[in-house]
Structures are given as C-alpha cells and as structure tokens.
Protein: TetR-family transcription regulator
Amino acid sequence: MYSQPVDTRDKLIESTRELLWERGYVGTSPKAIQALSGVGQGSMYHHFSGKPELALAALRRSAELLRAEAERSLLGPGTAVERVTGYLRREREVLRGCRIGRMAQDPEVIADPQLRAPLAETFDWLRETITTVLAEGRSRGEVAPDLVPETTAATVLAVVQGGYVLARSADSAEPFRQAVDGLIALISR
Amino acid sequence: MYSQPVDTRDKLIESTRELLWERGYVGTSPKAIQALSGVGQGSMYHHFSGKPELALAALRRSAELLRAEAERSLLGPGTAVERVTGYLRREREVLRGCRIGRMAQDPEVIADPQLRAPLAETFDWLRETITTVLAEGRSRGEVAPDLVPETTAATVLAVVQGGYVLARSADSAEPFRQAVDGLIALISR
Structure:
C-alpha cells in the first residue's frame, strides 16, 4: 500500500526528466508526461500541483546525478590537470546536450526563479569545486603558477556547455572533442 | 506598388527573428508572428509557405549579421590575441544568449537539416576564421608556438556559447565575463 505512491511519483519524475531532456520545458506537456509514465491525470495531480512542480523535482534529481558524476572525476585520484581532464573527457551523450544546461535556453525556466535555481546551484557548485581542484594543484606545482583558478574554472564549465551547443549544431560530437582538446592543451602548458 | 511586398516580407522576417530569440522555435507560433509583425495570415502565407520557411529566412539573416559583427573584430587591425580578445569581449546581450546558438537546444531545429544548416555553417565559418587568425599570429610570433590553432578556435567558440548558458542560468552576465577572462589569460601566455 505504501510503496505504490512512491513508485508513481518516481515514474512521473523519471518521465519528466526524459521529456525535458528531449523536448525542453516549453515542449513538454502534462499529457506527454502522463503518456510516457503511464500515470493517469488524477494520480499525477495528486502527487504534483502541475508541470512547474514536476519539472522542479525532475531538475533537482538531474542536478543531483550530474553532481555525483562530476565528483567521481573531480574528487578522485590524480593531479589537478588529470582530474579536470577526466571531468572534461568523461563519457557524455554529447548530441543530447546537458540535462541542466539545455534548460537555460528555455525562456519559461529562466523567467521562474524556482525553476532556474537548480541550474544556478549546479553551476555554482561545479565552479567552486573546479576552482578548489585548480587552486590545490597550483599550490602543489601541478598547474602553472600564473593560472587563475576562479576564471579558469568558469572557462572549463563554459567549454563543456558550449561544446554541447556546437555538437548539436553540427550533428556531430567532433566539435565538442575539439573544444575540450584545445582547453586541455591550454591548461596543461 | 513594388515596395510593399518587400516591406511585408521584411517585417515578417524581423518579427520572426525577435520571437525566435525570445521564445525559441517550438515556442514561436505563426499567430505570434502575425501579431508582432502586423501582417495578416493571408499575406504571411503569400510570402512564406509556413513557419519552417520563415524561420529559415530569419536564421539566415541572423547568421549574416552575426558574421558581419564577428568580422569587424576578427578581420580588423591588431595582433592575433588582440583580435580574438576583441571578438570575445565585443558588446553582447549576454542574458539573451546567441540568436544562432540558442536554436541548437531546440529539438525541432536540430531534427530538420535545412533549419540546422545556418547553425552549422555559422560555426564552421567562425571556427575557420579564428583558426586562420591564430595560425597567422603563430607564424608572426604573436601567440605561443605550442598553441594549436584548430582546437583552440573550437575552444574560443565553445567559451562564448557556454558563457551564454552559464549567464542565463545565473541571471547575471558575470559567469560569461569570467569564462572569457579565463580563456584570454590562457591564450595570452
């Protein structure tokens, strides 16, 4: 009796995550969420007040998973350059883009402070984490002494997010790889 | 008699450019284009077969203007690093994002080879142009001899496109500036 609502909630969140990734926020309708999850309209509105609340739950879960994934490379073993390289080169579905970053193009997400929050928090956390990795690496002599950790961390994030944009535009993962290779060469000097 | 159709066509293209930038492709309806342009439905379908053809004309015009803007800094005076810096730092409506790059997040644009073409062509042209600027700069000793023009050019493009994503996520132009500052420091070494 008690596990059923949890499963239904979970199905709704997972279906919303998929639809947001595939179609964006504007392109995702409550009807499509019901169809993909197999959850009826009444049950959906029992668990969530509507699309914004569902999307927020989906974005929060995607942000959590993205963070766990990033931690594996950034907080793992190796020098600062190796860890940042691991983060940049980790396996990605390049042509689908970032589940979080793609939402930034959606005007309705950006106009709603609650929906925008998981985006801002994820990128803040990533920037701070990469800044720490680079600052520690600099103090250990693993990166050049003139490399500025804060701004370089912002550059690392931008290359990933922009790499997705270039890859989707070209319908090829190649521009993503090139942008990452160019950055790794620059920070390895 | 002959100037009227040209004006109407132009109004439709400019209104579509604005709506695509503001709402994306999926979020732009033929009705919204008619409302913003003040052009009636019959007249709209006299000039364009529908939303895809209108969007293509709008994207082609945006690509042309973006290219002219980029040429001013990239093909202007100065060293290679100065020209790339000028391109990265030129005035931009950072929070609105790139008129071309934002379309890459739109599944319907990416799924249509015709609509995707202006995106792919614009980024190809930019990458080739920046590659040439950096290669010439390297041969003149303006950039470090170990800097690879091709991949660095891809990194430059990615930083701009990703900078927009980070700025929109943060509702602040600051992350764009930080990412650009980080990159300029890296290529100036």
About this structure: The mean pLDDT of chain A is 95. Chain A has one domain: 3-188. The radius of gyration of chain A is 19 Å.
